[in-house]
Amino acid sequence: MPMIEIKDVSKWYGSFQVLTNCTTNVEKGEVIVVCGPSGSGKSTLIKVVNALEPFQEGNIVVDGIKVNDPKTNLPKLRARVGMVFQHFELFPHLTITQNLTLGQIKVLGRTPEEAKTRGLKYLNRVGLIEQKDKFPGQLSGGQQQRVAIARALSMDPICMLFDEPTSALDPEMINEVLDVMVGLAKEGMTMMVVTHEMGFANKVANRVIFMDRGQIVEDATKADFFGKPRSERAQQFLAKILHH
Amino acid sequence: MGGFDFNVIERSIGYLFREGMTFTLTLTGLAALGGIIFGTLLAMMRLSSHKWLSLPATGYVNLMRSIPLIGSPTPIQVGAVASSVITFTLFEAAYYSEIMRAGIQSIPRGQVWAGYALGLDYWQTMAKVVLPQAFRNMIPILLTQTIILFQDTSLVYVLSITDFLGAASKIAQRDGRLVEMYLFAALVYFLMSFTLSYIVKILQQKIAIIR
Ligand SMILES: Nc1ncnc2c1ncn2[C@@H]1O[C@H](COP(=O)(O)OP(=O)(O)O)[C@@H](O)[C@H]1O
Ligand SMILES: [Mg+2]
Question: Which of A98, A135, B153, B207 has its CA 20 to 30 A from that of A88?
Fold first, then answer.
C-alpha cells in the first residue's frame, strides 16, 4: 500500500480548473520531486494531500486513510503529515521553543517537558539549539526554515510535504536547508518536495513529477527524467532551469 | 451669584473621583472587556464561510453602527447600572468587531495553514496563532476605540447614575456652580483622553519598530 495515493484528482477554483486528473503514488521511503512552471498547480497538489485545500473529484489516501471522506478526522491526519512552507510560517509571536512544542502539546497531548525535550532534540539536529529562546524574527531565513523543519519533525510525521522550501531564501542559505532535507531523505523519510533545485532531485529523488497547467505531464524515474524527458514542455523547462 | 467660585472643585474633588470616576472607569473597563470578547466572536462569525453565521453577525454590526447610542434600547431591565454595562457592551462590540475583523484579515493565510498542518483545529488555530497576533497588531486601534467609549460613558448621567459627569452635575446643582463644575469636568475628560491618546501614539511607534 502506498503512503500517499493520489487518484484522478481534479480541482476547480470557481470555473478555473487548477488540477486535472492528477494521479500518482508515493511509496513508503520514497522521495518525489515535483517541478513545473509557476502557476502549474504544484502548491495546490501538495495542499490537497493534507486537505488544506478541498478538491471536487478523485480520491486521496494517506497511510490508508481517505482524505476526502467527510468522516475523516482531518486534524488527526494532518498531525501525522509534516509540512514545510515556502515562507516558513513560524509563529512570530512565539519563541522558537514554543513554536516547536505547540502542536505536540495541543495535538499529541504531550506534557510541556516531553514536548520540549523532543523539540530541542530536533532543533539540535538542525544545528540551532543556541537559538531556542529567540523569536523567529531574530533568525535568518535559512535558520527559520530549519526551525520549521524541526517543528514538523517534532510531531513524528509518517511523511513530509515541502512546498518550495528554498525559493524564498538568499542563495547562500539554500544549502543549509537542502543539507537537512538530504539527511532526512537518506534516513528513509517519505517526502513529496516541490522544488526547482535539480541538484537536490539528482541526489535523493526516486521520481520526478513535471506539472503543467494543472496536469501531471511527466512522472518518471530520476534517470529517465534527466536522461530523456518525453514531453516537449518538460524538455524546454529543464533546459531553462539547468542553464539558469 | 457674582464671579466664579472655584473652591467648589476643591471641596468636592474627593467625592468626584472616589464616586464618579471610579464608576466611569469601571463601566469603561467592563464594557471594553465585554465588547472586545463579543466583538471578536462577531468578527469570527463575519469571516466564516457559512452564511448562517456571517449574515446575522453582519446585520447586527450594521444595525448597532447605524443607531445613536443614546437611543439604543436596553434589551433587559436589570437596574440602571447593569443595563448601562450591557448596553455599552452590546453597542461597542459592533465597533470592536470591525477592528478585530481587520486584525484577523491582516494575518497571512500561511499562518492558518501552518496551524492546521500541525493538526490544530479551527479553535486552537484561532486561539493560539491568529488571535494573539491580530490582537497585538490592533492594540493601538482598540485603545483608541476605548478612549471613545470612555467619553461616551458620560451619557449614563441621563439615567441619573453617578458617573464622573453625574457626580459633577449633582454638585453643580446643589451649590449652584454650573459653569465651574462643567468646565472642570470637561477639562478632566480632555486631559485623560489626551494622555491616553499620547500613550497610544507611543505604542504605535513601538509596534512599528518591532515589525
Ligand atoms: N485561492 C485561489 N483562488 C483562485 N485561484 C487560485 C487560488 N490559489 C491558486 N490559484 C490559481 O491556481 C493556479 C495554480 O496555483 P499554484 O498551485 O499556487 O501553482 P504553483 O504552486 O505551481 O505556482 C494558479 O493559476 C493560481 O493563480
Ligand atoms: Mg507554489
Answer: B207
Using CA atoms, how far residue B81 sits from A61, A112, B34, in Å, is 59, 44, 15
The C-alpha cell at A153 is 519533525
Nearest chain B alpha carbon to A93: B133
List C-alpha distances in Å: B200 to B34, B154, B177, B205: 21, 22, 35, 9
B38 domain residue, yes or no: yes
Residue B2 domain-assigned? no
Residue B200 lies in a domain: yes
Q: A9: which strand partners?
A: A22
Number of compact structural domains in chain B: 1
List the domain range (segments joined by +) for residue B63: 7-210
Read off the pTM: 0.90
Nearest to A44 by CA among A87, A88, A9: A9
Residue with CA nearest ligand 1 atom 2: A13
| Residue B1 resides in a domain | no
CA–CA separation, B177 vs B172, rounded Å? 5
DSSP A76-144: HHHHTEEEE-TT----TTS-HHHHHHHHHHHTS---HHHHHHHHHHHHHHTT-GGGTTS-GGGS-HHHH
In our burial notation (b when 16+ CB lie closer than 10 A, e otherwise), range B66-88 reads: eeeeeeeeeeeeeeebebbbbbb
A-B contacts at Cβ under 8 angstroms: 64
Smallest CA-to-CA distance from A60 within A8, A136, A133, A17 is with A8
> What are A4's strand-pairing partners?
A26, A62
Distance from CA of A167 to the nearest CA of B (A): 15
Task: Select the residue of A106, A137, A152 nearest B128 (Cβ to Cβ).
Answer: A106
pLDDT at A208: 94
From first to last of the 211 residues of chain B, give the pLDDT tens digit: 457 777 888 888 888 888 889 889 999 999 999 999 999 999 999 999 899 999 999 999 998 888 877 666 655 566 777 888 888 999 999 999 999 999 999 999 999 999 999 999 999 999 999 999 999 999 999 999 999 999 988 888 777 788 889 888 888 888 888 888 899 999 999 999 999 999 988 888 887 655 5
* Residue with CA nearest ligand 1 atom 20: A39
Q: Residue B111 is part of a domain; what is its CATH number?
A: 1.10.3720.10
Q: Give the Å distance between the CA of A22 and the centre of ligand 1.
A: 15
